Structure to design on (452 residues):
C-alpha cells in the first residue's frame, strides 16, 4: 500500500469518525481534547499559575476518564462477565427488545445456510433455554433474560465507576491547589510564624483530612447511544464541580459547563444540518459518511446499487430485506461504510456474511438510501463534494473547539476582572491565600482584636 493510499485512508476514517454527530463519541472526544489544550493555554496567557495547574489536572484528567472510561470498562466486562455466562456481547439488546425484529432476525438466520452464521443461529434459537450456570444454583433464568441483565449490569457498572473516578479527579484538583497554597505560605512565612511558635498549632498538615464520600445520583435507564451514555458523565462532572466549587468560582464553573454541554451535545447536529442544507442547495450533497464519499470506487458502487436502492426504499420489512442482501454486493458495502450493517470477514478481509447481531436502525437506513441517491445524482461533482465534506466536518469541530477552548475561558477571565476590580486571579484561590494570612499570622499580634 502506497503512502498516498495510507494517507487517504487515514483522512477518510478521520472525517468519518468526526462527522458522526448522532451516536458516536469520536467528535465529542476530538472537541474535548483540542479544547482542553486551548483552555489551559488561554489561562496560561491570561490567568494565573494556579489556574494553569488546576485546568491541566482537571481538563486532561476528567477528559481521559470521560472519553475512555465507559468504553474501556465495557470492554473489560465484555471479556469477563459475558463469557462467565456463555453470552455473546455482540448481540445487540435492541433486537431482543422488539419481538418483530427478533422474529425477523431468527427467520433470516434459520433460512441462511452460511457456516459463518452457525454460531449466531445457535444463540438466537437458544434464547428461551435456561442459563446453564444459574440453573445449577437454582436460578433458572433464560438466556434472553441473562442478556438483558448482563447489558444492564454492564451499563450501570461502567457508568458508575467512570463517574466515581471523575468525582475523585475533581476533588484531587482542588486539594492539590489548597495544599500548594498552604505549603507555599508556610515556606515563605516560616520564620515569622516560628517566632510565635504557631506552626504546630496552625499547620494544616497536622490535621486529618476528611475525605467526602462519593454519592452517585440515580442513573438513567438503559441507553444504547454512546453519546447519551457519555452525557451522564457530563452531568456527573457538572454536578460535582458546582457542588464542590469554592466560594467565588461557581459562576465560572456554571458558564464553562453550559458551554461544554451546548457545544458538544446541543449544537453539533444543527451545525451539521446547516452545512448539509447548504451543500444540497449547491448540488454538493454530503449526508453520506466520508467512507462512502472518499471511496475510490464510489461511482461504481452507486451505479451498481441504483435499482436495489429504489427497491429498499419501497420495502415493507427493511430489516429482513437488508439481512437478505448479498454480503458482497455494492449496496452492502455502502451500508457498511455508512455504519448501518457489519460484514463478517475472514483474516484476509474476504467478506463472508452479514452480521445478524448488528441492530438495523430502519430510519437511519432510509435516510442513508436518500443520501446515496442524492450523491449518485451529483456524482459528476465528486471532487467538489469531497472538499466540502472535509470543510463541513472540520468546520463543525473547529467552531466547538474555539467556543469551548478560547471564548469560554476568556469570558470567565473577563467576568473575574469585572467582579474583582480588574484582578484576573481566581477569587476562590485569592480568598484561600487571604485566609492563610489571617489564620497563620494573627498570633503575631496578640493585642490585635480580630473579627472573624
Amino acid at each position: 500500500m502506497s503512502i498516498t493510499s495510507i494517507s487517504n485512508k487515514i483522512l477518510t476514517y478521520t472525517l468519518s469518525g468526526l462527522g458522526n454527530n448522532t451516536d458516536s463519541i469520536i467528535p465529542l472526544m476530538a472537541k474535548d481534547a483540542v479544547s482542553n489544550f486551548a483552555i489551559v493555554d488561554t489561562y496560561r496567557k491570561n490567568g494565573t499559575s494556579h489556574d494553569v495547574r488546576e485546568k491541566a489536572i482537571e481538563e486532561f484528567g476528567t477528559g481521559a476518564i470521560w472519553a475512555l472510561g465507559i468504553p474501556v470498562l465495557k470492554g473489560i466486562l465484555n471479556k469477563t462477565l459475558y463469557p462467565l455466562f456463555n453470552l455473546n456481547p455482540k448481540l445487540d439488546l435492541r433486537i431482543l427488545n422488539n419481538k418483530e425484529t427478533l422474529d425477523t432476525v431468527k427467520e433470516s438466520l434459520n433460512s441462511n445456510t452460511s457456516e459463518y452464521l452457525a454460531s449466531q443461529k445457535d444463540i438466537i434459537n437458544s434464547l428461551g433455554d435456561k442459563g446453564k450456570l444459574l440453573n445449577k444454583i437454582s436460578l433458572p433464568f433464560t438466556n434472553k433474560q441473562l442478556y438483558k441483565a448482563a447489558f444492564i449490569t454492564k451499563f450501570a457498572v461502567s457508568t458508575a465507576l467512570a463517574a466515581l473516578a471523575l468525582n475523585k479527579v475533581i476533588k484531587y484538583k482542588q486539594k492539590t491547589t489548597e495544599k500548594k497554597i498552604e505549603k507555599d505560605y508556610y515556606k515563605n512565612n516560616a520564620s515569622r510564624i516560628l517566632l510565635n511558635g504557631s506552626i504546630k498549632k496552625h499547620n494544616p498538615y497536622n490535621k486529618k483530612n476528611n475525605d467526602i464520600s462519593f454519592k452517585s445520583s440515580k442513573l438513567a435507564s438503559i441507553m444504547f447511544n454512546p453519546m447519551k451514555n457519555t452525557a451522564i458523565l457530563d452531568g456527573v462532572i457538572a454536578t460535582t464541580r458546582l457542588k464542590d466549587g469554592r466560594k467565588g468560582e461557581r459562576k465560572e464553573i456554571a458558564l464553562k459547563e453550559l458551554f461544554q454541554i451546548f457545544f458538544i451535545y446541543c449544537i453539533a447536529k444543527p451545525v451539521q444540518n446547516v452545512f448539509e442544507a447548504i451543500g444540497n442547495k449547491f448540488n454538493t450533497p454530503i449526508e453520506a459518511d466520508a467512507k462512502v464519499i472518499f471511496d475510490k470506487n464510489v461511482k461504481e458502487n452507486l451505479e451498481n446499487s441504483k435499482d436495489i436502492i429504489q427497491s429498499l426504499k419501497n420495502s415493507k420489512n427493511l430489516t429482513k430485506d437488508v439481512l437478505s442482501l448479498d454480503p458482497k454486493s455494492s449496496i452492502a458495502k455502502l451500508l457498511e461504510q455508512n455504519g448501518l450493517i457489519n460484514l463478517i470477514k475472514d483474516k484476509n478481509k474476504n467478506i463472508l456474511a452479514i452480521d445478524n447481531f448488528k441492530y438495523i436502525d430502519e430510519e437511519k437506513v432510509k435516510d442513508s438510501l436518500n443520501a446515496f441517491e442524492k450523491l449518485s445524482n451529483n456524482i459528476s461533482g465528486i471532487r467538489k463534494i469531497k472538499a466540502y465534506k472535509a470543510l463541513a466536518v472540520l468546520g463543525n469541530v473547529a467552531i466547538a473547539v474555539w467556543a469551548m477552548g478560547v471564548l469560554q475561558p476568556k469570558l470567565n477571565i473577563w467576568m473575574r476582572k469585572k467582579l474583582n476590580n480588574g484582578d484576573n486571579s481566581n477569587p476562590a484561590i485569592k480568598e484561600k491565600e487571604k485566609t492563610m494570612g489571617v489564620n497563620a499570622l494573627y498570633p503575631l499580634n496578640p493585642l490585635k482584636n480580630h473579627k472573624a
Summary: The longest helix spans residues 143-195. The longest strand covers residues 351-354. Residues 345 and 352 are 5 Å apart (CA to CA).
